[in-house]
Amino acid sequence: MADGGGEDKKMKVLVAVEETEGSLYALSWALDNLFTSASDVPDKTESLGRLVLIHAQQPLQHFMHPVGPCMTDPHHRSFSVLFAVYATSSVIDSVRRAQEQNSRNLLERATQVCRSKLVEAEMVIVDGDPKEMICQFAEQMQADLLVVGSRGLSKIRRAILGSVSGYCAHHATCPVLIVKPPKGNHP
Amino acid sequence: MAAEVGKPAMVVGIDDSEHSFYALQWTLRRFFSVADSAFKLVVVHSKPSPASVVGLAGPGAADVLPFVESDLKKIALLVIEKAKDLCSAFPVGDIQYELVEGDPRNALCDAAEKHQAEILVVGSHGYGAIKRVVLGSVSDHCAHHAQCTVMIVKKPKPKH
């Protein structure tokens, strides 16, 4: 049971990275608390196993429609017109590129956080609904632990779980670690 | 900075179910399998009050309560004993066992606060016939209301 203790401790940890403050905090919390075995080793990852950062991109809408007040024609009966604008492929491309750039920046920041704590992380970007993709990926890679932030908005009381963390808590098949934002000025 | 005294606490909530012992064991294996763990361990069991278990409002309720109470006490002691057994197999340095009374949902969150826990660990019953595991009410409550990080450990379903 206790023999090969080092081996038992090796975990595959999947950390969900989103564009929320809570998410990056969750990452650094996980790094601080899960990678504490070897203190001065240049690469702590060896002692723990694998750290994978996953970021899910929302799928793009292929058309966009503006939501605004209805148009009314005083002379005829009032009617509302909803404009559906089918985006041209160039628009889609640039939006997609912007999204990818966003994701890359986010993961860059995350990797920097990891490096500052002497941990090497692998990065994965998936397309699709974040909550489903994260749980699916966790199952695929047989993660030992899934780490998620709790909610992006820190002003709201910690009692509210964000949609991704709530979904993962229910649906992930592996253990889930939900990191709450720091206590701050809470009395 | 990381002196013996200042170790952050990891509170593990257990009840008499398989799931919570699995959670305790998982935690021990992952975090306490080497002698100098980064955490100190606090194992908390909340014994529900007999009134909440019985839930009767009839005339017979008062008679039943003492029996239920002694039963619950016995179960609680067994739970702690079993937890002690599990933990003895691991080189855990700093460990505390706590027996509290009341609704587990609040009791666990309170215990986590009392010990200034860094992590609160709970198992999950996974009630529900829906294809994915559904959270039990205690773990769900803790996930929402605990001030600290919450770790929900589920017993994996057999794949075959």
UniProtKB/TrEMBL annotation, chain A:
<dbReference type="InterPro" id="IPR006016">
    <property type="entry name" value="UspA"/>
</dbReference>
<protein>
    <submittedName>
        <fullName>(wild Malaysian banana) hypothetical protein</fullName>
    </submittedName>
</protein>
<dbReference type="InterPro" id="IPR014729">
    <property type="entry name" value="Rossmann-like_a/b/a_fold"/>
</dbReference>
<dbReference type="Pfam" id="PF00582">
    <property type="entry name" value="Usp"/>
</dbReference>
<feature type="domain" description="UspA">
    <location>
        <begin position="90"/>
        <end position="180"/>
    </location>
</feature>
<dbReference type="InterPro" id="IPR006015">
    <property type="entry name" value="Universal_stress_UspA"/>
</dbReference>
TrEMBL record, chain B:
<feature type="domain" description="UspA">
    <location>
        <begin position="10"/>
        <end position="154"/>
    </location>
</feature>
<dbReference type="InterPro" id="IPR006015">
    <property type="entry name" value="Universal_stress_UspA"/>
</dbReference>
<dbReference type="InterPro" id="IPR014729">
    <property type="entry name" value="Rossmann-like_a/b/a_fold"/>
</dbReference>
<dbReference type="Pfam" id="PF00582">
    <property type="entry name" value="Usp"/>
</dbReference>
<dbReference type="InterPro" id="IPR006016">
    <property type="entry name" value="UspA"/>
</dbReference>
<protein>
    <submittedName>
        <fullName>(wild Malaysian banana) hypothetical protein</fullName>
    </submittedName>
</protein>
